[in-house]
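Field reference: sequence -> structure
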Amino acid sequence: MRKSTLRSFGLGLFIAGSAMFLYDEFTEKPSSDRIAASSSKGNIVKIQKDKLVSLQKEAAEAKEQLAKIQTDYNQLKNDSAAKKIHSYTLVINRGMDSEDVSQSIKRGGIIKDERAFERFMADKDASKNIQIGDYKLTSDMSNQEILNIITRKK
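Structure field:
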C-alpha cells in the first residue's frame, strides 16, 4: 500500500470520528439522569433526577409542616372552646350564708370547688361582709375578685 492511501484512510477515520463526536455532543439524547414529564398542554418538561429528588423532599417537608399547622390549629380551636368564659348573675338574698353563696357561684359555672371558695372567704374573714344584691360574675375572675365584688370592696 502506498503512503498516500494510508494517509487518506487515516484522515477519513479522523473526520468520521470527529463528525460522530460532534453529532453525539450536540444532539439531545435520553439520559439516565434526566426525566421527562408532559404537562396538560402536551409540552414536555425535562428535569434532572437530583433536582426531582430535591423537590420531592421539599414537598414532603411542606406536607409535614401543613399537618403540624393543622394539628396546632385544631388543638387551639379545642382549647379556646374549652376555655370559654361563662357569665353568671349571682343573686344574694337576705339570709344567705357563705355556703349558700358558694353553692350558687358553683352552680353558675364560675368556680369549680365551692369548699375551697368557702375556705378562702373564711381565711379573709369576709363571710360577714357579703352584701345583698345582684352581681355579674365571669369564670375568668379570681377568688379575690369575686370576693371584692360580693363584699363591694374596691
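Note: The longest strand covers residues 87-92.
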